[in-house]
Structure formats: structure tokens, C-alpha cells
Design a protein that fits this description.
By secondary structure, this protein is an all-alpha fold. It has a single domain (about 45-115, about 120-275), classed as Methane Monooxygenase Hydroxylase, Chain G, domain 1, CATH 1.20.58. The chain is about 55% helix and about 0% strand. α8 runs antiparallel to α10 (about 210-245).
Length: about 280
């Protein structure tokens, strides 16, 4: 009979008194004790964990998007491509999470919905910052955060900065001629299609070898929005499956509001130019 396996014999660290362990590094005590259901419904834990993990992924998405925007202002923009690809895959993870939430039935959700009060994913400050950074900007969407001055100020500051796409357009303007109206948009408003910008990107797509970095940048942005759109679509489907067409807890129209968001284009020029190529 062989002795039980002991990892210590191979050098594994087994004693951590006064030393940093895995849980210490990750702050797991705080993380795993941050779930506080307000009802006795079993599925409320699923609902809380689903949304907390989504916020963690969005935390990482913001970290990468801020860095990517900074890199687009550097001489070599290629390091930004990896970060944009990573954000696309983050939204793939967020998308997959809806599959778990969809195991909750309308009956399951009804048992704890009243405990949510007026709280709603509509009020996610991180999601709003992601949208602002990507270019879907609307100052009215800051109002749900007025009770948290530091959050409201952060979102206002984001409205004053160039969006990720504004930075991409600036790089495009360094390679092809763009008129002022293609670059001088109101930063506080959502991106709108611009024929001059589309013509500039079309030059890139018609000669990828000459403009390879811009070509790859454009495709990374399209890829990111592709995953973002899938996430939004699955959000609508999940909400409709669980609450039908009831009004959302935060007062929005629920499914009707989410379906309106499906029409939003983050980088319209990069989608519209394809028709004429």
C-alpha cells in the first residue's frame, strides 16, 4: 500500500502563517463574502453572483480600453490591438454568462424581485463608462449617478475626452486626407455616420498592404463591436425569457428599452463603408 500523495515532497509550500497565500493575494475574504441575499429565494444567489462577476469583467474591460486609447496616441499603435482583442473576448465571457442566468425561470425570479427595490443593471456605472469610452454618449445617462458625486464626475470627465473611435480617426487622418468635419464632432454626443470618414476608411480597405496597421485597427474595432452586439442581444433575450414585457426594476421599459439599444452603432463608419467596397 503506497503512502498518500504529499505535494510537500515535491517542494509545494504548505505553511502560510505570516506569509501571503492565494486567498490573501486575491482578497478572497472580501470577494466571497460580498453576496448578501435579501430574500430566502435560492436563485437570488445566482442573480447576485451573475451581476457581480459581470462587474468584475467590466472592470477589466475598462482597464484595457483606457490603455488601448492611450496606445493609439503613441508612435506604434500595434500594442493596442492585443488589448482590443482581449476586450472582445471579455464580452464573449459576459455573453456566455447569460446562459447561466437563463436557467432561472420567471417563477424563480418572482420570488425575490421585490427585494431589488429600484436597483437595476441600467444603473451600472462601469457599463455606462464603457459606453461613453466607446462613443455611445448621452449626458442624461449620468443622472442615475448624481447621488454618487465621484462617479458622476468620472462620467462627466469621460464625455470631455476623445472616445476610442475619435483616437482611431485621428490616426486615420495622419495617413489619408480627412476634412475638419470628419474630426470635429461634438464629443458629448453619440457617433454618427460620416461620409468623409467612411471614404477615408474605404481607402484603407482597398489597399490593406499600404495601410496595414489602420486596416488591422479597423477590424479590431469591428470585432469588438460584434461581440458587444451579441452581448446586448442575449441580454434582451434573457430578460424577455424571465420577465416578459414587464417594466424593469429601475423604471425602464425593460425589453422595449433593451431592444432600442440594439439599434445603437458604436462605430457606424466602419460598418457602413462595407456596402460600397
Amino acid at each position: 500500500m503506497t503512502d498518500p500523495y504529499d505535494p510537500a515532497r515535491e517542494g509545494a509550500q504548505m505553511a502560510f502563517d505570516g506569509r501571503m497565500a492565494y486567498g490573501d493575494y486575491l482578497g478572497l475574504d472580501a470577494l466571497l463574502n460580498a453576496q448578501h441575499p435579501l430574500s430566502d429565494a435560492p436563485d437570488e444567489m445566482l442573480f447576485i453572483v451573475q451581476h457581480q462577476t459581470s462587474e468584475l469583467w467590466m472592470r477589466l474591460a475598462l482597464h484595457e480600453l483606457h490603455a488601448a486609447r492611450h496606445m493609439l496616441g503613441q508612435d506604434d499603435i500595434r500594442p493596442a490591438f492585443k488589448l482590443l482583442a482581449r476586450v472582445a473576448r471579455i464580452f464573449e465571457q459576459l455573453n456566455s454568462a447569460w446562459d447561466v442566468l437563463r436557467t432561472m425561470t420567471p417563477s424563480d425570479y418572482t420570488r425575490f424581485r421585490d427585494a431589488l427595490g429600484q436597483s437595476s443593471g441600467f444603473q451600472s456605472a462601469q457599463y455606462r463608462e464603457i459606453e461613453f469610452l466607446l462613443g455611445n454618449r448621452n449626458a442624461a445617462m449620468i443622472r442615475p449617478h448624481a447621488h454618487r458625486a465621484e462617479i458622476a464626475e468620472r462620467l462627466k470627465a469621460e464625455l470631455a475626452r476623445p472616445s476610442l473611435y475619435d483616437c482611431a480617426l485621428a490616426r486615420l487622418a495622419g495617413a489619408v486626407d480627412l476634412p475638419p468635419e470628419a474630426l470635429g464632432r461634438d464629443r458629448a454626443r453619440p457617433h454618427a455616420p460620416n461620409e468623409a470618414a467612411q471614404a477615408g476608411w474605404a481607402k484603407v480597405y482597398r489597399d490593406p498592404a499600404r495601410y496595414w496597421d489602420l486596416y488591422e485597427l479597423a477590424e479590431k474595432l469591428v470585432d469588438l463591436e460584434d461581440y458587444f452586439r451579441r452581448w446586448r442581444f442575449n441580454h434582451v433575450t434573457t430578460v424577455e425569457r424571465i420577465i416578459g414585457f414587464k417594466r424593469g426594476t429601475g423604471g425602464t421599459g425593460g425589453v422595449s428599452y433593451l431592444k432600442r439599444m440594439l439599434e445603437v452603432e458604436l462605430f457606424p463608419d466602419l460598418w457602413h463603408l462595407r456596402t460600397d467596397l
